[in-house]
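I'd like us to work through together how a protein chain folds, taking it slowly. To get us started, please write out a protein record for me. Label the sequence line and the structure token line clearly, so we can match residues to local backbone shapes. Once you have written the record down, we can walk along the chain together.
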Amino acid sequence: MKGVSEMLQLTYSEGKDGILYPDMEMGALPETLSKYGWMRKRFLKEHQSGLYTSLLTEGMLDKHCRQIQEQAETRRDAIMEELRKQTPPP
């Protein structure tokens, strides 16, 4: 069985303070939620706590909220387009 140090294969750089710091790259930041994503997250937390907890523990909460956000934005855009057709500007 390999030891932890063999599995990680980390390299280190010495800082100005003489301490060794691991050379690590920061991954891409997750997409932020817009108004509709935050609304969905708050709704789940306040009114469907079981689903909220389940999605949170599975690491799927943000993905779920982004999906709802995309659906809401698509629907909003369709409604706005329909309103533009019904009431053209003067």
User: Anything to note?
Assistant: The chain has a mean pLDDT of 88. Strands lie at 12-14, 20-22. Residues 61-86 form the longest helix (26 residues). Residues 33-90 form one domain.
